[in-house]
């Protein structure tokens, strides 16, 4: 049972800024989602994911007073998770590799329908092929594809999370799909 299911995320955030015991409702709602997002950005070790999540929730807790309830709480917390994950990579001097397993086939079909992949490639390419190709994309393209197709975020939410103009998000997604298509064609050859 989800805590305070009758309240929106924004309402819980506002109340939690005054009534700190409500912060557990935020953690309950976002812990699993943010954990998946962090893994998809390339953090494979379970303990490291938990450490990053802990840092995310500490930052959210400390900055809850500054949250603007007229904005999307989801975008706000995803931006914090994104920033903490990128900080993790900077500290480790690693390049995120991406980890795409469970729902890669669903995303592949969604991507395919969005740029008419059926006519250009054989749809029998399996999720494991996509899992091998996505990590090869540059980070800026991988991030927008993960947010758009795995996390199912709108262009505006991606814009808020990555702090980019909406037009830039659209351009990045378009370029990422073209590059992905190119990688997939090379695999077919």
UniProtKB/TrEMBL annotation:
Residue ranges of domain RNA polymerase sigma-70 region in the record: 27-92
Pfam families, per the entry: Sigma70_r2, Sigma70_r4_2
Keywords: DNA-binding, Sigma factor, Transcription, Transcription regulation
SUPFAM superfamilies associated with the record: Sigma2 domain of RNA polymerase sigma factors, Sigma3 and sigma4 domains of RNA polymerase sigma factors
PROSITE patterns: SIGMA70_ECF (PS01063)
Molecular functions (GO terms): DNA binding; sigma factor activity
Transmembrane portions of the chain: none
InterPro entries attached to this UniProt entry: RNA_pol_sigma-70-like, RNA_pol_sigma-70_dom, RNA_pol_sigma70_ECF_CS, RNA_pol_sigma70_r2, RNA_pol_sigma70_r4_t2, RNA_pol_sigma_r2, RNA_pol_sigma_r3/r4-like, WH-like_DNA-bd_sf
Signal peptide range: none
Superkingdom as given in the UniProt entry: Bacteria
Residue span, RNA polymerase sigma factor 70 region 4 type domain: 130-180
GO terms of biological process kind: DNA-templated transcription initiation
Family: Belongs to the sigma-70 factor family. ECF subfamily.
PANTHER family registered for this protein in UniProt: RNA POLYMERASE ECF-TYPE SIGMA FACTO, RNA POLYMERASE SIGMA FACTOR
Protein name: RNA polymerase sigma factor
Native species: Candidatus Uhrbacteria bacterium GW2011_GWF2_44_350
């Amino acid at each position: 049972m989800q805590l305070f299911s009758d309240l929106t995320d924004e309402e819980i955030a506002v109340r939690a800024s005054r009534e700190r015991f409500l912060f557990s409702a935020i953690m309950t709602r976002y812990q699993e989602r943010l954990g998946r997002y962090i893994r998809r950005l390339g953090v494979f070790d379970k303990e490291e994911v938990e450490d990053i999540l802990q840092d995310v929730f500490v930052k959210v807790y400390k900055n809850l007073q500054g949250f603007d309830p007229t904005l999307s709480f989801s975008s706000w917390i995803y931006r914090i998770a994104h920033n903490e994950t990128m900080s993790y990579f900077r500290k480790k001097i690693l390049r995120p590799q991406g980890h795409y397993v469970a729902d890669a086939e669903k995303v592949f079909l969604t991507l395919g329908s969005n740029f008419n992949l059926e006519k250009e490639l054989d749809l029998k390419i399996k999720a494991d092929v996509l899992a091998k190709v996505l990590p090869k994309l540059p980070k800026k393209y991988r991030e927008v594809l993960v947010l758009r197709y795995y996390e199912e975020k709108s262009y505006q939410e991606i814009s808020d999370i990555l702090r980019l103009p909406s037009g830039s998000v659209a351009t990045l997604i378009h370029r990422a799909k073209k590059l992905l298509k190119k990688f997939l064609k090379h695999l077919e050859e």
